């Protein structure tokens, strides 16, 4: 069972218990006013952390700026009620709208950045907003802050004399936020966010509208965080720039998700449920020694991260630390019981050793064949039978790519017909993968242009090129590691269809490529050949007109190569146009009817594989002039 399955079982078992405890807690566990207020604050930060998790956990955009939206919600609620006499609930709703608009504006700027740069930009905006709120005293009350006008008991204005109302409203808010997060996680947006979190370039190659998905997630996250801010000011009755926009609030919202389990549905709940009461208890216990509570709090956070870096909810998952330690102890105990067992020498070789050895042996044999017999291989190759082809599908005209003084692709022109299986070969560093990246939109050409079915696709972002009908694999497999095989396929299929249709398309491809047995496993649990087949399946989920396969045979043994060859031939027989980059030349001879040879970025030959590989300058490009002369002398 993978970690996702373990977490799912944990959620199902824990949910009814958690709900029962939360509903009855005021009557047996938190009967004092102080303890009840701690739980109310916990609910508020649960809501804020669940909201943060949509963009920070699902989408992988680690924001240290969510106190901006928390503060906007809080200040809009109190200022509109106190100075404009607007109903508190309406003010809270308007705060959500303002926060969403703020999120859209900030996202348009900051979401162009990646990784730590986005985090730093969001944190700097937090510090800026806190300073501005302190400076504009007439609006925010400055460092003194703003108080909510006290109406004693006015449910119509979100004020209750009995604090139990805040407790159950807070609990209800957590449930609603959790349902929203669950819906997002299972929606098309959720699939897109998890894909770009795992590997943004691969997500773009699948057609995921990365920028749009990020902004929508940030807008939704900002609006929900504003609700938590508005609830906070109504519960506490006061807000100031530090508690609204301060760096402590910004870091705490993100931190609770990390220690609980970032990117999971239960992580924010668990993180807030443990560390908000802990923080407030430590603050009350060690108030005579300023700073000591923070030291203890920080040490406990570090302890949790060191035990299970993914967060507390993973402790009991099937691949969590506690589970791994249990398995390790059991294995050591079993090995100790088996010390007296005699093992035959040959029995220590595993199937994996045989497979790896065979792959290495094949590559070495192939290298020897290349050095000694490359021309004999070309002469003995059986030409692929000619087949009726359609009009030109892919056309490259004088395409060049230059990096500073290096010209990686040099004025390459070629055409690929509809239904053709076309090969691109050449020595290492010839520019083959750069040419693929240029076709797929990952790299813009310095000169020239590329058309697909007569429409120009050069200088288009990769997600648009993918949606135009170009599917691709990568030289090094780039599946989404935290998603299952099925989910990897659904991501690509969902870029051009609804989620229900995407699931049907994924099921069709699983059946076509015989991946049904591993559909619910994660890529890291699978052998390399199955990962590569999954990557082909993900590209097929786009319903492409053109499929680009980059060195699919590297690292595979004979059996795995044969399986992959049959799959590629079957796809081409069904009319799919395929362009392959491959170093295993006998695969090129088995698959293709035409090849192009690149050397130092330039196209040096083009034609039938046996004709091309018989040309002297092609052999020299592979082996070097000295090696060719040595062969001639021999």
**CATH structural class of the largest domain:** Alpha Beta
The gross shape turns out to be elongated
**CATH homologous superfamily of the largest domain?**
P-loop containing nucleotide triphosphate hydrolases
How are the strands ordered across the major sheet? 8-9-10-5-11-12
- Tally of separate domains: 2
Q: Report, as a whole number of angstroms, the end-to-end distance.
A: 58 Å
- Under the CATH scheme, the architecture of the largest domain is 3-Layer(aba) Sandwich
User: Average pLDDT value?
Assistant: 86
Q: Into which percentage range does the β-strand content fall?
A: 5-15%
Q: What is the number of strand segments?
A: 12
Helix-strand category: alpha/beta
Description:
By secondary structure, this protein is of the alpha/beta class. The chain has 2 domains: 30-261, no CATH class; 389-633, P-loop containing nucleotide triphosphate hydrolases (Rossmann fold), CATH 3.40.50. 60% of the residues lie in helices and 10% in strands. The chain is built from 26 helices and 12 strands. It has helices at 3-28, 33-58, 67-84, 88-110, 116-135, 137-140, 164-186, 188-198, 200-205, 210-236, 241-245, 247-261, 267-285, 292-307, 321-337, 351-380, 432-440, 462-468, 485-494, 499-512, 528-540, 558-573, 585-591, 609-612, 616-623, 625-633, and strands at residues 146-147, 238-239, 392-403, 406-417, 421-425, 447-452, 455-456, 470-472, 546-550, 577-581, 594-599, 602-607. The strands form 3 sheets. The protein has a 6-stranded mixed β-sheet with strand order 8-9-10-5-11-12, with helices on both faces. Helix 2 packs across helix 8, helix 3 (67-84) runs antiparallel to helix 4 (88-110) and helix 13 (267-285) runs antiparallel to helix 14. It is elongated and about 90 Å long. The protein starts with a helix and ends with a helix. Residues 339-371 have low confidence and may be disordered.
